Fold this sequence. Notes:
With 421 residues, this protein is of the alpha+beta class.
Amino acid sequence: xxxxxxxxxxxxxxxxxxxxxxxxxxxxxxxxxxxxxxxxxxxxxxxxxxxxxxxxxxxxxxxxxxxxxxxxxxxxxxxxxxxxxxxxxxxxxxxxxxxxxxxxxxxxxxxxxxxxxxxxxxxxxxxxxxxxxxxxxxxxxxxxxxxxxxxxxxxxxxxxxxxxxxxxxxxxxxxxxxxxxxxxxxxxxxxxxxxxxxxxxxxxxxxxxxxxxxxxxxxxxxxxxxxxxxxxxxxxxxxxxxxxxxxxxxxxxxxxxxxxxxxxxxxxxxxxxxxxxxxxxxxxxxxxxxxxxxxxxxxxxxxxxxxxxxxxxxxxxxxxxxxxxxxxxxxxxxxxxxxxxxxxxxxxxxxxxxxxxxxxxxxxxxxxxxxxxxxxxxxxxxxxxxxxxxxxxxxxxxxxxxxxxxxxxxxxxxxxxxxxx
Length: 421
Ligand SMILES: Nc1ncnc2c1ncn2[C@@H]1O[C@H](COP(=O)(O)OP(=O)(O)OP(=O)(O)O)[C@@H](O)[C@H]1O
Ligand SMILES: [Mg+2]
C-alpha cells in the first residue's frame, strides 16, 4: 500500500527558487522520480512548494509513493506518473485535493485524509467554538423558504439554534458585524455591515440581498448557514494542525510563507507573525517576547483541542485557526478540513509523521468494488452517476482555505453530503 501524492500543476515545472534550500529540494525530488525538474518562472511558488514539502517528507520516511496525474482518483492511481519505491504503508492521499475526490474516496480504504475531514466545516455547531470565539455570535438561516432547504443534518451538539438573519444582526447591533456563510463553507466572501443603534431586524435581509443577489436562492432556507459575528480585533493569525486530537504544528497565516520558511525538524510554532493578516506589517518585538506569545498560543490550541475532543470525539483531525484579540488574548477564528488547508510555514516533518501514524491506526473502511482494469490507460468507462457527472464537470479544480483561489461552495456542499459518515 502506498502514499498517493498529487502535485499542484506539473511536478516537473518548479517555481523560481527563493533559496539554496529550494534548489536542494528540487534536486531531491528529481533524483527520486528519476526525471529532471526545471524552473518555470510562471509557476506560483506557494502552490507548487507546499504539497512538494509533504512529498519530501514521505520520501524521507522511506514510503512507497505514487505521484498521480490530475485525473479522478481511480484512473490516477492506475496510471501514476512516477512510482518511488519504498516501504508499504496504509493508503494515504496527500497533496492537492480535487473536487472529484469525495466521489472517488468510497472506492478506497484510505487511512488519510481522515474519515472526519469534512466535519470541520460544521465548526459553528460546536459549543467549544462558541465558548472560544471571543466575539458575540448568532447563527442565522439563509433567507427564503425553509421548505426549499436541503436536508442538512446536525453533525455536532443538540441542534441548530438559529433565527432569521435580521434578528441575528439586530442582536449584535449597534456596531460592525461580519456575516459568513458557514454551510457550505467558502460559498460566499465575508460580508461586513455597520449597524447603527436604530437598526431594526426588518432591514437585515434587504442589506444582505443587495450584496449577494441571487446567490441566496441556491441555498434558500438552509438552517443556521450564516454566522453573524461581531467584528473584533484579530492579530497574529495562526494555523494549527490537529491530528489524532493532538496539536502537531502551528504557523502564522502569512500568505507568502511555506514550510520552506522554517525547516527545523523540531519547530512547533515559529515565533514570526504578521500583526494583521495580509498587512505585511510584522511583529518586531524582541524574540523572547514573541516566544512567549508562541507559548501562549500553543497552550491555548491544546486547551481548545482537548475541549473539542470531549465535545466531539469523532472530530480528531482538523485545522484550527487562532488569533489574538485587542487585549492579546487568544480566540478561535474557525476550523477547517486538513486536506484542503494551506500549510503556511507549518512543520511538514511533524505533520507527515502524525499523518502516517493516524493512517496506520485508522479503522478500515468499507469500499465500493471496482475493476482496476477498467481504469488503466487514458480512456475508459468512468460511468459516473448523473449527479457525479454534473459535479465532476463543474468542480474539477479546488481551492485551499486561506488562499485566494475562486471558491466553489457547492463543491463543498456535495463534498459534505457524500464524504461524511
Ligand atoms: N469576527 C471577525 N472580526 C474581525 N475579523 C474577522 C472576523 N471573522 C473573520 N475575520 C477576518 O477574516 C478572515 C477570514 O475569515 P474566516 O477565516 O472565518 O473565513 P474564510 O472563509 O475561511 O476566509 P479565508 O479563506 O480568507 O480564511 C480571518 O482570517 C480574519 O482576518
Ligand atoms: Mg479562514
